[in-house]
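Troubleshooting: if your tokenizer reports a length mismatch, compare your output against this known-good record of 198 residues.
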Amino acid sequence: MKIDKVSIYIPVYNSEKTIEFTINSILNQSHKFDEIIIIDDFSKDNTLDIVNQFNEIKLIKNSSNRGLGYCRNLGIKNSSNQIIASIDSDVELHEEWLKVMLEKFNINPNIMCGGNMEEKFLTNKFNFWRAKYYSQNWGNNDIENPSFLYGCNTIQNKNIWKEIGGYDETFNTNGEDIDYSNKIHLAKKFKLIYCSKA
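Known-good structure output:
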């Protein structure tokens, strides 16, 4: 069965400097997303003013700061489609990202895929350090069942989330992706795929 409809959610917290670029990269996909959800985790800056300029977005506002694990579960719970993508609020997708990912799902829909994250603005010392010592990718070749998928850009079948009981909500800022990948490995019913071209 060919998959056409895909939801995407973005957990957001104080992302006024990047969120517009992120949203535009979603809107500019060659294969369009069917649903765009933003979970605002009680931002204190101008993030909401920027998000509200886009009519295409379903906005969920937390009444307090609940953390990343909570926001991931909330995004998936409120999505309308079986295939659900997620990116961080400072990520810009390549225009073919979704098209490339869906090629994997049309071979096997019972998967979670992660893409290849490349750092920009390497004159920033933090970005440079991360690119050198903690790059959020597994290189230039596809990998079946890597040890984990980086949470910055992923797409999955909702059945996985239901089967393994969702994200651990005690993970507030990071680490939820490694924990979630570990639960998928332990379930032994689904595959993790690293897609180097996404």
